[in-house]
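Morning run. Coffee first, then this:
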Amino acid sequence: MIEARIMRIFYPMTWQEDAMHNRLPVPLETTLVLAMALLAFAVAPGAFAQEAAARLMPDPNQPAQTVAPLVSQGTDFTVAPSTLAFAGCALTTDTQTLALVAFCFDVFTGAIIPNCNVQISVQARDGTGGHLHTDPDRPAGEFDPAAGNTGPTGLLNTTYKAPEVSGIMDVTITGTRSDGTPVAPGSATIGVELGGLGAIPASGPGYTTTTSAGHDGNNIFANPSTAANLQQVPVEFDSLVFLLNVLGIFTGPTPTLVFTSLSLPQGGLFDVDANGDGAIDNPWHPPHCGHRRGLEADLRIRNVPAELRPLLVMAIADNNLRLPVRSESPSSPNATHWHLRSR
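And here it is:
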């Protein structure tokens, strides 16, 4: 049986370590053949009516650090989302890529088959990456090239270009042998994501959060230091307001601060309800220039009296946060929220 597959080839040291761990004194080549055959059987047992399959694996000639580690979505491969170049809201992107190799192999022997024609397609999975709204045009990234002949080596080098939107991407690999005989299709998953983000509590001392249209409660993720700083802002703000109460300068209660948007669980583009009608109006476009890396938050200030806002600015600055967006900062009298970013 031949099957088409995308799969991960571990670097030689990893294979040696695996062999030592399992006490299997076998050479690298044999280990690779056995691994491919076993994976083919596990993934596509029903395909054994054929002799070959198509798969993908990381390019073994690329440095290991170019392949992001498995993070949180349980996928075969992981890569960071492409990002905007942070020069204002310029629509230039820093494209993140993953070098892969497509190939066909004999399922029974593990031998790679030369001159196989392969095609690679990718589809974004709905409901992943924190995006609960669906859209057939959701960006899935692309392969370059997405088709070709594996040549005498049996290997077709291709590059996956990640979208700005995080989530799980379902990949299908099909192919035919040089004589036109179809091989069993293969599949793989790519997790487009940033690692290390965690949700702040939905509410805490002096603050609460809101849900986001199209994301529900998936909008309150940040990296650990940013999360800690954000939660400390309302604590310090309350202490400063209490001091004004003691001095008789202000007699009201401390307003509860409301965080409306941080980042999504795996980072990436955070599209929003731009018109306030309860729906994502223009999916996959960045009305949020940031909110992609767990470093930013929007803080509602409509319920904060003008005389207390200088104290809020002080609490923000004291906790290593800044207010970089002019229209969403104290410099704009019409701002309904402030944009906070870690220093």
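The helical segments are 12-21, 28-43, 224-247, 309-318. Good start to the day.
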